[in-house]
Write a structure and sequence with these properties.
alpha+beta, globular, transferase activity
Protein backbone atom coordinates (compact mmCIF):
# COMPACT_ATOMS: atom_id res chain seq x y z
CA UNK A 1 0.00 0.00 0.00
CA UNK A 2 1.62 3.12 -1.16
CA UNK A 3 0.68 5.97 1.12
CA UNK A 4 1.88 9.33 -0.07
CA UNK A 5 0.30 12.66 0.76
CA UNK A 6 1.79 15.58 -1.09
CA UNK A 7 2.89 18.32 1.26
CA UNK A 8 3.97 21.75 0.19
CA UNK A 9 5.19 24.11 2.85
CA UNK A 10 8.33 26.01 3.83
CA UNK A 11 11.01 24.18 5.77
CA UNK A 12 12.30 26.46 8.50
CA UNK A 13 16.05 26.42 8.75
CA UNK A 14 18.48 24.88 6.27
CA UNK A 15 18.40 21.17 5.37
CA UNK A 16 21.41 19.47 6.89
CA UNK A 17 23.00 16.34 5.43
CA UNK A 18 22.64 13.08 7.32
CA UNK A 19 25.94 12.60 9.10
CA UNK A 20 27.69 10.69 11.83
CA UNK A 21 28.16 13.69 14.14
CA UNK A 22 27.02 12.62 17.59
CA UNK A 23 27.82 12.33 21.26
CA UNK A 24 27.08 10.10 24.31
CA UNK A 25 27.83 6.68 22.81
CA UNK A 26 25.30 4.06 23.87
CA UNK A 27 26.11 1.17 21.51
CA UNK A 28 26.71 -2.50 22.29
CA UNK A 29 27.06 -5.75 20.32
CA UNK A 30 24.20 -7.98 19.15
CA UNK A 31 23.93 -10.83 16.63
CA UNK A 32 20.89 -10.93 14.29
CA UNK A 33 19.62 -12.83 11.26
CA UNK A 34 20.15 -11.25 7.83
CA UNK A 35 17.25 -13.10 6.18
CA UNK A 36 15.01 -10.70 4.24
CA UNK A 37 11.54 -10.28 5.68
CA UNK A 38 8.51 -10.37 3.42
CA UNK A 39 5.74 -7.86 3.93
CA UNK A 40 3.07 -8.96 6.34
CA UNK A 41 -0.64 -8.24 6.26
CA UNK A 42 -0.24 -5.82 9.16
CA UNK A 43 -2.02 -2.60 8.26
CA UNK A 44 0.29 0.41 7.86
CA UNK A 45 -0.19 3.66 9.71
CA UNK A 46 -3.05 5.58 8.10
CA UNK A 47 -3.79 9.26 7.87
CA UNK A 48 -6.91 11.10 8.96
CA UNK A 49 -8.63 13.61 6.67
CA UNK A 50 -6.30 16.25 8.04
CA UNK A 51 -3.28 14.22 6.94
CA UNK A 52 -2.21 13.45 10.50
CA UNK A 53 -1.10 9.90 11.27
CA UNK A 54 -1.56 8.07 14.53
CA UNK A 55 1.27 7.57 17.01
CA UNK A 56 3.23 4.35 17.21
CA UNK A 57 1.47 1.01 17.55
CA UNK A 58 2.52 -1.78 19.91
CA UNK A 59 1.35 -5.36 19.49
CA UNK A 60 2.84 -6.19 22.88
CA UNK A 61 3.82 -4.10 25.91
CA UNK A 62 6.81 -1.88 25.17
CA UNK A 63 10.09 -3.41 26.30
CA UNK A 64 8.82 -7.01 26.18
CA UNK A 65 11.52 -8.30 23.82
CA UNK A 66 12.19 -11.98 23.14
CA UNK A 67 15.32 -12.96 21.24
CA UNK A 68 17.25 -10.85 18.70
CA UNK A 69 15.58 -7.79 17.20
CA UNK A 70 15.45 -6.84 13.53
CA UNK A 71 14.00 -3.80 11.79
CA UNK A 72 12.06 -3.78 8.52
CA UNK A 73 11.45 -0.44 6.83
CA UNK A 74 8.82 -0.42 4.08
CA UNK A 75 9.27 2.68 1.97
CA UNK A 76 5.93 2.30 0.18
CA UNK A 77 4.11 2.17 3.53
CA UNK A 78 6.22 4.88 5.19
CA UNK A 79 6.54 2.57 8.17
CA UNK A 80 9.32 1.12 10.30
CA UNK A 81 8.51 -2.18 12.03
CA UNK A 82 10.40 -3.89 14.84
CA UNK A 83 10.38 -7.69 15.07
CA UNK A 84 11.73 -10.12 17.62
CA UNK A 85 11.52 -13.93 17.78
CA UNK A 86 7.78 -13.78 18.57
CA UNK A 87 6.94 -11.53 15.62
CA UNK A 88 5.89 -7.90 15.32
CA UNK A 89 6.83 -5.90 18.40
CA UNK A 90 6.25 -2.27 17.41
CA UNK A 91 5.70 0.00 14.40
CA UNK A 92 6.35 3.68 13.73
CA UNK A 93 5.59 6.12 10.90
CA UNK A 94 8.70 7.39 9.10
CA UNK A 95 9.79 9.61 6.21
CA UNK A 96 12.79 9.45 3.90
CA UNK A 97 14.90 11.36 1.42
CA UNK A 98 13.56 13.62 -1.32
CA UNK A 99 12.57 10.72 -3.63
CA UNK A 100 11.33 8.17 -1.09
CA UNK A 101 10.37 5.31 -3.41
CA UNK A 102 13.58 5.24 -5.45
CA UNK A 103 16.72 3.35 -4.49
CA UNK A 104 19.85 5.38 -3.81
CA UNK A 105 22.10 5.62 -6.88
CA UNK A 106 24.88 7.97 -5.79
CA UNK A 107 26.02 10.66 -3.40
CA UNK A 108 23.86 13.76 -3.48
CA UNK A 109 20.70 12.24 -5.00
CA UNK A 110 18.86 12.46 -1.64
CA UNK A 111 17.42 8.95 -2.02
CA UNK A 112 17.14 6.33 0.71
CA UNK A 113 19.10 3.13 -0.09
CA UNK A 114 17.48 -0.31 -0.20
CA UNK A 115 19.03 -3.55 0.99
CA UNK A 116 20.13 -5.34 4.15
CA UNK A 117 22.21 -3.29 6.56
CA UNK A 118 23.54 -3.40 10.12
CA UNK A 119 23.44 -0.74 12.80
CA UNK A 120 27.00 0.47 13.41
CA UNK A 121 26.26 2.47 16.53
CA UNK A 122 23.43 3.98 18.55
CA UNK A 123 24.24 7.46 19.90
CA UNK A 124 22.72 10.71 21.03
CA UNK A 125 22.72 13.39 18.30
CA UNK A 126 22.90 17.13 18.93
CA UNK A 127 20.38 17.98 16.19
CA UNK A 128 18.20 14.91 15.60
CA UNK A 129 17.86 13.43 19.08
CA UNK A 130 19.49 10.07 18.32
CA UNK A 131 21.43 8.59 15.40
CA UNK A 132 21.33 4.88 14.60
CA UNK A 133 24.08 4.82 11.98
CA UNK A 134 23.93 2.11 9.28
CA UNK A 135 26.81 0.40 7.52
CA UNK A 136 25.88 1.81 4.10
CA UNK A 137 27.54 1.36 1.65
CA UNK A 138 27.69 -2.42 1.90
CA UNK A 139 29.18 -4.89 -0.58
CA UNK A 140 25.72 -5.18 -2.15
CA UNK A 141 25.48 -1.38 -2.38
CA UNK A 142 28.80 -1.20 -4.24
CA UNK A 143 27.71 -3.98 -6.59
CA UNK A 144 24.56 -2.10 -7.59
CA UNK A 145 26.47 1.18 -7.85
CA UNK A 146 29.14 -0.28 -10.16
CA UNK A 147 26.50 -1.97 -12.36
CA UNK A 148 24.67 1.33 -12.74
CA UNK A 149 27.90 3.04 -13.76
CA UNK A 150 28.44 0.41 -16.45
CA UNK A 151 24.84 0.86 -17.65
CA UNK A 152 25.22 4.63 -17.77
CA UNK A 153 22.68 5.24 -15.00
CA UNK A 154 25.34 6.87 -12.84
CA UNK A 155 28.03 9.32 -14.08
CA UNK A 156 31.53 7.91 -14.31
CA UNK A 157 32.82 10.46 -11.78
CA UNK A 158 30.02 9.88 -9.23
CA UNK A 159 30.62 8.67 -5.66
CA UNK A 160 28.43 6.16 -3.85
CA UNK A 161 27.93 8.31 -0.75
CA UNK A 162 27.74 7.37 2.94
CA UNK A 163 26.39 8.63 6.28
CA UNK A 164 22.97 6.93 6.13
CA UNK A 165 21.17 6.38 9.41
CA UNK A 166 17.90 6.40 11.33
CA UNK A 167 17.28 9.54 13.40
CA UNK A 168 14.74 11.98 14.80
CA UNK A 169 14.02 15.57 13.80
CA UNK A 170 15.02 18.97 15.09
CA UNK A 171 12.94 19.99 18.09
CA UNK A 172 9.46 21.11 17.03
CA UNK A 173 9.50 19.37 13.65
CA UNK A 174 7.57 16.18 14.46
CA UNK A 175 4.91 17.39 12.02
CA UNK A 176 7.26 16.45 9.16
CA UNK A 177 6.43 12.83 9.97
CA UNK A 178 2.70 13.47 10.37
CA UNK A 179 2.50 15.08 6.95
CA UNK A 180 4.81 12.70 5.04
CA UNK A 181 7.35 15.45 4.41
CA UNK A 182 10.44 13.72 3.00
CA UNK A 183 13.11 16.11 4.18
CA UNK A 184 16.32 14.11 4.68
CA UNK A 185 19.27 13.60 2.36
CA UNK A 186 18.66 9.84 2.34
CA UNK A 187 18.27 8.94 6.02
CA UNK A 188 15.16 7.55 7.71
CA UNK A 189 13.49 10.00 10.09
CA UNK A 190 11.06 9.38 12.99
CA UNK A 191 9.40 11.58 15.56
CA UNK A 192 11.68 12.24 18.52
CA UNK A 193 9.55 10.25 20.98
CA UNK A 194 9.63 7.35 18.54
CA UNK A 195 13.40 7.36 18.04
CA UNK A 196 13.72 7.27 21.83
CA UNK A 197 11.47 4.19 21.91
CA UNK A 198 13.26 2.53 18.99
CA UNK A 199 16.71 3.08 20.50
CA UNK A 200 15.70 0.89 23.46
CA UNK A 201 15.52 -2.11 21.11
CA UNK A 202 18.51 -1.37 18.88
CA UNK A 203 22.17 -2.21 19.43
CA UNK A 204 25.26 -2.29 17.24
CA UNK A 205 24.79 -5.22 14.88
CA UNK A 206 20.98 -5.03 14.68
CA UNK A 207 19.77 -5.94 11.18
CA UNK A 208 17.89 -3.27 9.21
CA UNK A 209 16.08 -4.24 6.00
CA UNK A 210 14.97 -1.37 3.76
CA UNK A 211 12.54 -2.34 1.00
CA UNK A 212 9.64 -1.02 -1.04
Amino acid sequence: MKLFIAASFLLTGSLISCSANSNSDSSSSSSTSTTAVKKTTTAPATASKSGIRSMQKFNRPQGMVTGPVRIVIDKSDFELRVYDSKGLLAAYPVVFGLKPLEDKFMQGDRRTPEGIFKVVYNKQHKLWRKMLMLDYPTKESYSKFNSRKINGQVPANASIGNGIGIHGVETGNDYFIDRYYNWTNGCISLKNAHIDDLAVYVKAGTTVIIQK
